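Researcher: We plan to redesign the surface later, but first we want a full-length starting point. Tokens attached.
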């Protein structure tokens, strides 16, 4: 039997050939979020299971069958976070970040865990970046989140994405609608699949999300939540649409968009791409005005979104949106006879003077020819050549690997620094 241990299903290693994409996305996100004055918050990957029961809702797919849960040594049920909002709200309450009605604009990033059936764009460990605004109840906050994400797509260069929005109304409006929906689906019980029948009592709104072809006709004719919205929700939703229109953001209103988590009220939205197949939602969010109170805090309106970074990376790769930057500035090529002590001494001296230079030192010296070949493969801009001649004359030979005109120059260390500092 082999001793080899493989990674778990639905979990992925990000290899060096791809990490640069992740790093660049993170940079772009940080830049955009900074420009809207969001501040980063970090909270644990592991929380008490009851946090997610309370926040996400017991009758949701996530809580019912997708959580990685286990008991601690003391017997408390713990869960690897399946999303960030519940933990973020817990941290906000516990640290008093929203006390005295203080507004907060927070963002977070990191791995989330859901026990789903893996497929393209759907992993069991995946990375989300989320943003949440607390203590602002107006549509401007909802709009700012949508505008910020639109700016991000533009910066990343994502084509073919569309925005769907909807309003779920206030909790009281939804209770009325829920009853109407149950009555309607009860009249069509024979068409409902087992999942829908189960949801009829626990979470009837989620039946609207079903992809079962046999149920589409019934779903299409179901009463619309939009017809049951209260005045305040209608006003809020109109204001959001006005701002999006003013800022030139295209959207479509999808009255069947309900989202898979229970905490939403009023605005919900999703950004969807046609380039990823079935798992095309790259970002989803909405308002959750009752959640802070539900989790034990003071009544605090809130709105947020989270995007799936794995899906965005897939898109960047599939559509070849970015090309890998050439990061190696110089390769130190030393003759085999040169004492390793001298090579490390010289490279450290260079690093002390040019801390930003990306310098590759060949730790396993081979022939000059092989070393030049490697430098070419790395697309290095310069070769720093050191052989017996250079050591005897106390010089360095600097050769450009990209600029024929520059050619090759023999330089004292100061002269070498002067030239290289123009590049770094
Ligand atoms: P969500 O729609 O469950 O919302 O997830 C947000 C995004 O995470 C999805 O649109 C998708 O891009 C990504 N995602 C979800 N599951 C997976 C998976 N298994 N594999 C890869 N990517 C995935 C939330 O989580 C809410 N907390 C968003 C929010 C924040 N609402 C208000 N504030």
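Model: Full-length starting sequence:
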């Amino acid at each position: 039997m082999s001793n080899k241990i493989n990674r778990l299903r639905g979990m992925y290693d990000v290899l060096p050939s791809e990490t640069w994409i992740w790093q660049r996305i993170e940079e772009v996100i940080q830049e955009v979020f900074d420009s809207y004055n969001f501040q980063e918050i970090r909270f644990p990957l592991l929380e008490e299971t009851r946090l997610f029961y309370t926040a996400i809702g017991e009758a949701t797919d996530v809580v019912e069958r997708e959580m990685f849960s286990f008991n601690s040594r003391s017997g408390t049920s713990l869960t690897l976070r399946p999303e960030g909002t519940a933990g973020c709200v817990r941290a906000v309450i516990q640290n008093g970040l929203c006390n005295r009605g203080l507004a907060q604009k927070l963002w977070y990033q990191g791995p989330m865990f859901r026990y789903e059936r893996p497929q393209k764009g759907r992993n069991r460990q995946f990375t989300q970046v989320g943003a949440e605004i607390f203590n602002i109840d107006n549509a401007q906050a909802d709009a700012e989140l949508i505008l910020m994400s639109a700016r991000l797509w533009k910066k990343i260069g994502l084509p073919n994405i569309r925005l769907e929005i909807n309003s779920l109304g206030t909790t009281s409006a939804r209770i009325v609608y829920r009853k109407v929906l149950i009555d309607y689906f009860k009249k069509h019980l024979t068409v409902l699949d087992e999942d829908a029948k189960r949801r009829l009592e626990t979470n009837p709104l989620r039946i609207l999300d079903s992809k079962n072809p046999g149920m589409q006709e019934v779903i299409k004719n179901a009463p619309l939540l939009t017809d049951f919205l209260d005045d305040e929700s209608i006003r809020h939703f109109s204001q959001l649409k006005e701002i999006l229109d003013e800022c030139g953001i295209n959207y479509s209103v999808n009255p069947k968009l309900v989202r898979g988590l229970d905490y939403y009220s009023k605005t919900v939205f999703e950004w969807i791409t046609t380039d990823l197949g079935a798992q095309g939602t790259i970002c989803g969010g909405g308002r959750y005005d009752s959640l802070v109170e539900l989790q034990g805090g003071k009544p605090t309106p809130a709105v947020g979104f989270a995007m799936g970074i794995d899906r965005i990376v897939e898109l960047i790769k599939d559509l070849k949106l970015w090309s890998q930057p050439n990061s190696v500035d110089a390769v130190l090529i030393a003759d085999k006879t040169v004492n390793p002590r001298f090579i490390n001494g010289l490279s450290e001296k260079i690093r002390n003077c040019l801390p930003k230079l990306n310098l590759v030192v060949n730790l396993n010296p081979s022939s000059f020819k092989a070393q030049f070949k490697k430098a070419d493969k790395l697309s290095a801009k310069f070769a720093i050549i050191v052989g017996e001649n250079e050591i005897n004359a106390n010089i360095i030979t600097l050769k450009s690997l990209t600029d024929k005109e520059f050619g090759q120059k023999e330089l004292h260390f100061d002269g070498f620094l002067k030239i290289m500092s123009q590049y770094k």
